[in-house]
User: Fold this.
Amino acid sequence: MSDAGYDHATVERRWQEAWDDADVYRTPDDVEDPTYVLGMYPYPSGKLHMGHVRNYTITDAYARYRRMRGDDVLHPMGWDAFGLPAENAAKERDTNPRDWTIDCIETMTDQMESMGFGYDWDREITTCTPDYYQWNQWLFSRFHEEGLVERRDAEVNWCPHCETVLADEQVEGEAELCWRCDTPVEQRELEQWFLKITEYADELLEDIDDLEGWPNSVRQMQRNWIGRQEGTELEFGIDGYGDVEAFTTRVDTIHGATFFALAPDHPISEELAAEDADVRHFIEEEADPDGDEPNGVETGLTATNPVTGDEIPVYVADFVLSDVGTGALMAVPGHDERDHAFAEKHGIDIVPVIAPEPDGDEEPTAPDVAEGAYTEDGVLINSGEYDGLDSETARDRLTEDIDSAEWTEQYQLRDWGISRQRYWGTPIPVIHCDDCGPVMVPEEDLPVELPEFINTTGNPLDAAEEWKQTTCPDCGGDATRETDTMDTFVDSSWYFLRYVSPGLDEAPFDLAQANDWMPVDQYVGGIEHAVMHLLYSRFFTKVLADHEGLEHREPFTNLLAQGMVQLEGEKMSKSKGNVVSPQRIVEEYGADTARLFMMQAAQPERDFDWSEEGVRSTYAFLDRLKGMVEGYIADEPDGDDDAIASYVDAEIDATIAIASDEYDDLTFNKALRETQDLVRTLRQYAEYTDPHAETYERGLSAVVRLLSPVAPHLTEELYETLGNDGFVAEAAWPTAEVDRDYVAKRRRLVANTREDIRDIVEVAGIEDPNAIDVVIAPDWKYDALEIAIESDADNLIGELMQESHIRDQGDAAADYGQDLQAEREALSMTLEPEAEHAALESAAWLIEREFDAPVRVVRAEDADEDVLANAEPGRPAIEIDD
Ligand SMILES: [Zn+2]
Ligand SMILES: [Zn+2]
Assistant:
């Protein structure tokens, strides 16, 4: 605890217990379509880190805000409890993953409660319990029935350190490192279970357009990941092997095709490998599809270019992937970087056949392709009858002219390999029988529960002999269980549906309830999940819509990807030792301070730097607010409902309206800045004069409510101090009708006027002003300003002089006209003269307070001519008597 300041520990504990006793955050099953607010559930790694705290403060603040707006809110929490780290931790600590995970969950639950996160803990889910993972198995069987599961041999990414297969998405960077341990990834061939997400490629891609509540960056990452390409499929004849299908997006470059390339596992490559030692050696030893450089081996075969009739050499090359396109391609070194690199290495011709679009009537000039490929579209050259066509037209023409060619689409998206050779995951519900092959475990035999953990270097399920031995559900003969478990992304692809009916034991989720409660209205989590989790969840939702009657095809209406909490510009990480522990912050300053500091520091999407000083000043702010509320109750003020009270009143309304809009947009930092400004205004009010009790209390009450989503504990305490019954968490959100444009103009006018006075005092060296006059501009200047804004005439002064009441001002009108002309681009409307007068009258106390001098706000008709010359709309003239 801090030396000075309020006893946050007592306050926070008190309200956490009170909320708990009153079930404030429970969502009964019978509410209709609640606002569903969800943070991506955490992996129970042991302790909450700052990233968790930020993620869950965002969802908690929004959930609390929606509840105060009168919504029923669903705000659950659960645990992404399977996964490799638990298995590794268990090995290190000589325990088992289950006990270790349960311990971590207990610790993190306590930490979440100490942060004041308002979850419906009755809906908690934990994916490593059979209650949950039986439904992963059930869904796997259902996907299988619908033809969406396949077992195939596959080259897999293998991490030798983790001894596991990794999804493509789990292999990071150019160096291709394991996402968990940074070990270089190798390739292995294994029989794997795949979920056929590619069947949904088109829908997953096209529906991205409708995800208007998602950040564009995430939408674009998903588009790129699916990677639909349009191109031409066409045949090249290879002597002895007939016509071979190839795919290209650039058939316009076909005259520059100087070699043909086959994937290492293309049927022709495999046939060749059987008889040709060089090809075999390359495929088995050298081919590295994920390597930086394209490698290959000459086959001695030639392929016939269907347009030119040229015979070009055929290579087996590792940059050709059998599962992309057709596993064969025409290579054009002049116009493709990778083909260029390969051609240089193997001394293959590099021929330019596309030139940049020439200017006007000039002839196209061939680009220099000796050093690098020219990859842009352009105009065809060295292409016979097609010379002079632009690339796009040439692609159409050639696709039409070549007999075997047709337009087609290709995808980057691969089917989702879910097999993992690890213990701590959902057992894949399959039994292998020598006679029947792989057989699904019948529904009545689910769940297939994990056996006790065995500490071995390999897969513990392989070592669980007794568990492994079973009988075949089809023929009753001896059989063995599948020892692979599922990728944990299966668990997270539907967990948001389980919260809807967490205890249900007949189905993964209650269909009617899900149809009513889904989709998630606001989802919040890290950008690192942009493709895997968020794409798989969309895939599962679409399958469930097609086959299980779910009436929603997208799981998350609005998505927020929160930024990082950094320390001195760097990501916090245990290995770098630059971690700020949430636990310490809570102990020292309280959860409210941690939450408020974090939310005011930056917009949720942005990264920001942790600052101990910022934390301290946030704590001081809360402490001062507490003092203000207690001071008000102890000694109720007795001031008049005067101009100052009306100023404060208007600020209260403005703050409520603006902060509410910002909460709607999840721009908490802006809502909090407004609220803190209001606190300052109230403090200045109380320091300056005896406040009008009703106005002052309304202000304090508004502040307490506006802060409560972010600083829930202290605001409960203050809500009670102000004499309210019940919880602020369940109180009504304050509302106010204001014209935001008017508020902005009024605030700008007051701020500009104070700024001008400050400048004059400083420039003139006035130490102690006796009196200050603030003089409103004459009406005709407002008319002139309006004309200047609306007019598009070149000669503004001429236009102004057509108005007789402006023309009558003589030189003054000409001078002001010139000013307006000079600033024409930047002009904006101000308040009307009377409204300016009223606004400055009610704000005059702020000026009097600052400069310790009486202030008069003077209308133009009551002012001297020479002073008026300096007064402009939005910028009154200042007269200081010293
Ligand atoms: Zn690894
Ligand atoms: Zn069998």
